[in-house]
Amino acid sequence: MQVIDGKLTSATIKQEIAAEVDKIKANGGRAPHLAAVLVGNDPASETYVSSKVKSCKEVGFTSTELRFPADMSEEELLQLVDKLNNQEDLDGYIVQLPLPKHIDETKVLMAINPDKDVDGFHPCNLGKMMTGLPTFIPATPAGIMELLTRYGVETSGKQCVVIGRSNIVGTPMSVLMSRKGADSTVTICHSRTKNLKEITLQADILIVALGKPKFVTADMVKPGATIIDVGIHRVPSSETKSGFRLVGDVDYAEVAPKCSFITPVPGGVGPMTIVSLLQNTLKAYRFRTEG
Ligand code: NAD
Predict the structure, then answer these.
(1) What pLDDT does 75 receive?
(2) Whose CA is nearest to atom 13 of ligand 1?
(3) pLDDT the model gives residue 125
(4) CB neighbour class for 133 (10 Å; exposed up to 12, middle 13-18, buried from 19)
(5) What's the rounded Cα separation, in Å, for the pair 143 and 160?
(6) Has 87 been annotated as catalytic?
(7) How much is the pLDDT for 43?
(8) Any catalytic annotation for residue 197?
């Protein structure tokens, strides 16, 4: 069994990006610039935005954190989006989700200029992904593809099962795995799927993104499978100082001995998500400055 180390891989990719940024600056160019918009004070969102901004600094990007109170109106946010769409020195930006209930997320995401949509959530970019055109691939699925490639996991002709059909993880993941290049045969499962275990037992590659702690157990996994665990949950623990620890959607302790490759939580998919965002920002920068 080999652990797929997302922490190490993401550190390597950050060095690669930093080297590219150094080259750009040495040639007299400006640094790529990412902005993150945070509305409200959801603690998980605050953590995500802080680590995105910190990662930008690590690779030499310019980053801007734009924080607003939870009572910001939808109109005010749409005005900000319009301003960011037209800001000349800004290559890409993200609006951290979830947004407060009174703001229509779809309306906001649809208003983002697709050329600056480094999260890859705009239907225009999702459509390009579906047809195999160059675009921004949503960060978590992009990070998973990068891990599979860098660890030499064979995907061609393999049975891939994806659990979860969200727009940000499960659905794009199933498209990427079935596309030319990855060439897997994909089954996508969701909350209405019957006989889930029968299906997961067929999987050479099992990608789990349903948001339920330790949901996938050893009896659901084919021996020698590759397991990608997207889930991330804080659960109470008497063994840590903080009183909690992080677990995934997969019961790692019992599943790991059965597989050929597995991503741990933490340190698997999570760090790759941020790195993919940086890769998308560099892509946006090149698109804007080099055409
Ligand atoms: P979501 O809640 O939007 O979607 C969950 C999906 O799971 C749905 O499509 C639902 O149909 C399916 N599902 C629910 N119960 C099921 C069941 N019993 N059997 C089969 N399918 C079932 O979730 P999401 O946004 O895709 O996130 C999934 C998990 O991944 C969460 O734990 C989230 O925190 C985590 N996540 C991690 C990262 C990262 O960077 N590591 C990024 C995004 C999401």
Answers:
(1) 98
(2) 191
(3) 97
(4) exposed
(5) 17
(6) no
(7) 86
(8) no
**Residue to substitute in 4, 137, 169 for testing ligand 1 pocket (most ligand atoms within 8 angstroms of CB):** 169
What does the buried/exposed string (b/e) look like for 198-222 if buried means 16 or more CB atoms within 10 Å of the residue's CB? ebbbebbbbbbbbeebbbbeeebbb
Residue with tokens 């779809």: 106
Q: Which residue among the candidates 5, 14, 96, 251 is catalytic per the annotation? A: 96
**How far does the centroid of ligand 1 lie from the alpha carbon of residue 146, in Å?**
20
Q: Which of 119, 229, 249, 251 is labelled catalytic?
A: 119
Q: Find the 99 Cα to ligand 1 centroid distance in Å.
A: 18
Q: What are the residues facing 247 on neighbouring strands?
A: 233
- Domains annotated on the chain, with CATH: 28-113 (3.40.50.10860), 139-270 (3.40.50.720)
Are the beta carbons of 60 and 25 closer than 8 angstroms? yes
Pocket (CB within 6 angstroms of ligand 1):
140, 163-166, 168-170, 189-191, 193, 196, 209-211, 230-232, 269-270, 273
| pTM to 2 decimal places | 0.96
How many other CB atoms are found less than 10 A from the CB of residue 223? 10
Q: Three-state SS for 212? A: coil
The answer to whether residue 7 is catalytic is no
Q: What's residue 44's pLDDT?
A: 86
Determine the pLDDT at residue 283: 97
Q: What are the 10-residue block averages of pLDDT along the chain, 291 residues in total? A: 98 98 96 97 90 94 97 98 97 96 97 97 96 95 98 98 97 97 98 98 98 98 98 92 94 98 97 96 93 71
Spacing, Cα 174 to ligand 1 middle (Å): 14
Strand order in the sheet with 261-262: 2-3, 261-262, 226-229, 205-208, 159-163, 185-189
Closest-lying ligand 1 atom to the alpha carbon of residue 265: 41
Please list, in sequence order, all residues whose beta carbon lies within 8 angstroms of the beta carbon of residue 179, skipping any fewer than 6 positions away: 132
